[in-house]
Design goal:
The protein has 281 residues and is mainly α. It has 2 domains: 160 residues, no CATH class; 115 residues, no CATH class. The chain contains 11 helices and no strands. The longest helix is centred in the first third of the chain and has 30 residues. It is flat.
Length: 281
Amino acid sequence: MSELGNASLIFSLLVSLSALAFNAAGIWRKDWRLVEVGFRGVYVNLLFMSIAVGLLLNAFLTDDFSIQYVVSYSEKSLPVFYKITGLWAGQEGSLLFWGWLVVLYTAIIVARDGKRPGASYMPYVLLFLNGTIVFFLVLLNFVTMPFELMSLVPDDGGGLNPLLQNPGMVFHPPTLYLGYVGFTIPFSFAMAALMMGEAGDWWIKKTRAWTLFSWMFLTLGIVFGGWWAYRELGWGGVWGWDPVENSSIMPWFTATAFLHSVMIQERRGMLKIWNLTLIIL
């Protein structure tokens, strides 16, 4: 299973690099056929990343303690729904889940706009989205490898930290990730607008639904986190201004400011540079 998982991530990286190259070549040569090859690469990439996520989930559910990550965050007696949360309990699994979400969102954008007449912005948007995907896959293949094997296979794992065995663990991290990753879409559209020299209102209109979707899930993630912290003894109540909690509230402040300021841009044509700055942040 480990070998198949590693192979999926390697193939995903190769496909992502190829898609990125075809996008760049399509922009350089103004050849839409090359861009479409990059579009197809996104779907292939989604397949490989989904296989990797499915294999890691299966490793948790089947107690495959040959994989170091499973040993670190699971044990035989752990309830099934907490075994599933093992996917995002540690750095390796979190990055895999995060990267898979980026690929999924990218595939949705390609399916929605890839064949749309006049979608000349798509090669530029995909340039940044594929670049983000490559970044995650480099980490997953060479830095934080979720399918790394144990030198000696133990009979049981170390188990999930008791503080993480809470319903909040089921909802809090994935909702935050859905929000975090969602803002990659308006960011990529904003960068595409800058590259095309057309930083008007069009990219805001194209990404309004994504912005609201991402802000909503980021808000839900923060609410779930506050509820979890309130229930957990020793976590300082609903909110504590520590680095972990600030890592979610600061993007929320920026996103909330962006949601309000884009309305001013659409109605009065003001704050264009400010909105670009906010979404880049």
